[in-house]
Design a protein that fits this description.
The chain has 88 residues and is α+β, with helices and mostly antiparallel strands. The protein is built from two helices and three strands.
């Protein structure tokens, strides 16, 4: 019987996560409420010492409408958060 091995991209406990270095960037799914326009992936600066702290520093529009909403495996499905932007 194969052994179950925990996913190494996760912390084993909240304590080990708190002891780890602070994240510098967050990758977020940006779901467009207009179904005729594409969703996007955004990058938010999480470095409190940066002049762009808390701001969207990069955006990548998906080439196909609805791409982010489709089921996915990997980091996107695990860390996706809805971001609403005023200019959409």
């Amino acid at each position: 019987m194969p052994r179950l091995i925990p996913d190494q991209s996760f912390y084993a406990s909240p304590t080990t996560a708190m002891d780890a270095p602070r994240e510098q960037l967050a990758y977020v799914a940006m779901l467009n409420p207009d179904p005729s326009r594409p969703d996007a992936i955004g990058v938010v600066d999480l470095d409190p010492g940066a002049s762009t702290y808390g701001q969207l520093v990069h955006r990548l529009d998906m080439p196909v409408i609805g791409t982010v909403r489709q089921p996915a495996d990997g980091i996107l499905s695990l860390t996706a958060r809805r971001v609403q932007l005023d200019h959409w």
